[in-house]
Specification:
Layout: H1 2-22, E1 31-42, H2 45-50, E2 51-64, E3 69-82, E4 90-101, E5 115-128, E6 135-150, E7 153-164, E8 172-183
Length: 198
């Protein structure tokens, strides 16, 4: 479990370092950070037989291309508890790329994470079971949430599904219910025509 979590921690640190420099660049659109965590529940039949709910958390960095669309990189890690209390927890790590959409956004919105949003992503997942080596798998993600402005940050309750694909065995599917915190999502307002120096 700890090997997968360590890999995700390194990737998350890299994302945060990159964002601190990107935020310094003035632009009409924004680069924002996400931090999220929540309860992770196994959903596929085979996984439910030997895994109990656990926790998933992570960090992401997104660049908005318009009020409606943002592209991002995400690093996540977490664990499932085991049905047998004598077994260690099963960990996972995930590094993915995602597209996020706010279908009801408008150009006048000052924030880029408020309102209803949904996203889809894909990447590489690493499963780490008791006594086993890291198992890399192609992984698909889909999620949805609703963002609220809370002063300098945004808060989004969300639902997310993760699908760890394995061609030779049963796939692992899990769902996450949690809270996402957003930073640097406020758009820099361009100067008005009256205030520009000509």
């Amino acid at each position: 479990m700890y090997r997968a979590a360590s890999i995700c921690l390194i990737a998350a640190s890299t994302l945060v370092f990159t964002a601190s420099h990107a935020e310094a660049a003035r632009r009409d659109e924004v680069v924002f950070l996400t931090f999220d965590g929540g309860a992770m529940i196994p959903a596929s039949d085979r996984a439910r037989r030997y895994l109990d709910p656990g926790f998933a958390g992570g960090v992401g960095i997104y660049h908005t291309w318009s009020p409606v669309i943002a592209a991002g990189l995400r690093a996540h890690g977490g664990f499932f508890t085991r049905n047998n209390p004598r077994d260690d927890a099963s960990g996972f790590g995930l590094f993915s790329a995602a597209l996020r959409f706010r279908p009801f956004a408008t150009v006048a919105d000052a924030r880029r994470t408020t309102g209803f949003w949904f996203e889809a992503g894909m990447g590489v997942g690493l499963l780490d079971g008791p006594g086993s080596d890291l198992d890399p798998r192609f992984t698909l993600e889909a999620g949805a949430g609703y963002g609220f402005a809370a002063g300098l940050v945004g808060i989004s309750p969300f639902f997310r599904a993760m699908h760890f694909v394995d061609p030779s065995e049963d796939d692992l599917v899990a769902v996450v219910f949690g809270i996402e915190v957003n930073l640097f999502d406020r758009r820099l307002q361009p100067p008005t025509t009256a205030s520009r120096d000509w």
